Amino acid sequence: MKLQRLLFILMLGFIFSCSDDDDTSEPVELKDPEEVKDENMLQIEEFLSTHFYRFEDNPQNPNFQNIVFDTIAGDNANEEPIINSEFLESKPVTQQDVEYTLYYLKFREGAESVRQPTFADSVLVTYRGFSLFENQTFDASPNPIWFDLTNNIRGFYEVMDEFRGATSFQENPDGTISFDDNFGIGTVFIPSGIAYYATPPSGSGIAAYEPIVFNIQLYKSKESDHDRDGVPSWMEDINEDRRITNDDSDGDNIPDFADIDDDGDGTLTEDEIEFDAEGNLILPDSNGNGTPDYLDPTFPEDA
């Protein structure tokens, strides 16, 4: 079951649970997000301190090496813990006023000449998702698959802009694709607050409030323009919270990234922007009021 399908099932389950008039059970009281965040940090940091990693060949896809995590004990007592790895990095991620620490291993960033994806782009990846506690795989694709990052959990898309894809690829006689050996390789450790929190997908094996882990290889990315209005989707994040589903400039209940007339003035967004000779986007402000034309309902009327 792929990651996007898991998110759909989670959403579907929420809809049914809210629409069941015959359900007389008392609602489950959710834990405090700050408490869960602190609990998850202790769990993740303990994992990083007591485990090490190694790479193993993957017979399903030679391009996609398995990253295996194991406990430092017995024959592995002298292994270096992840917490001391030169590849371990972290970044803050804020959601609903809670600031999380997102740990990730950047084994290889990817080709320097290749663009980094934004949080709203599409990416071509191979991956394995597994639970932190039981190391149980709940989702995986050993072969490259395209993901629209806007349909993925927060912790997944927040790490993707730390990597780059490969410089090129070639199609093999058997129809498979081989990428230059310079694509991005990493692992991300995701707190439940920016994953599935209290309601993991049924049958996934993920416990409520459990952190999850993804091994990821990034081969390629594409800048997304979901509504094809000429403004890239990442630029439609007007409130700059790195989520594009809650930006609705004209209040018509259609997020800007899916709205072909962002300001609702009757003039299409694509007719209120320009491009220079090199194809770079230009956002005119014809009446000089500090708001680009495509977001200004007073233009063209007051221009």
From TrEMBL:
Superkingdom classification of source: Bacteria
Q: Where is this region: Disordered?
A: 242-303
Concerning PROSITE patterns, the annotation shows: EF_HAND_1 (PS00018), PROKAR_LIPOPROTEIN (PS51257)
Ranges of Acidic residues composition bias in the record = 247-277
- In its UniProt entry, what is this protein called? Uncharacterized protein
Citing just one GO molecular function, the answer is: peptidyl-prolyl cis-trans isomerase activity
Give the classification, highest ranks: Bacteria, Pseudomonadati, Bacteroidota, Flavobacteriia, Flavobacteriales
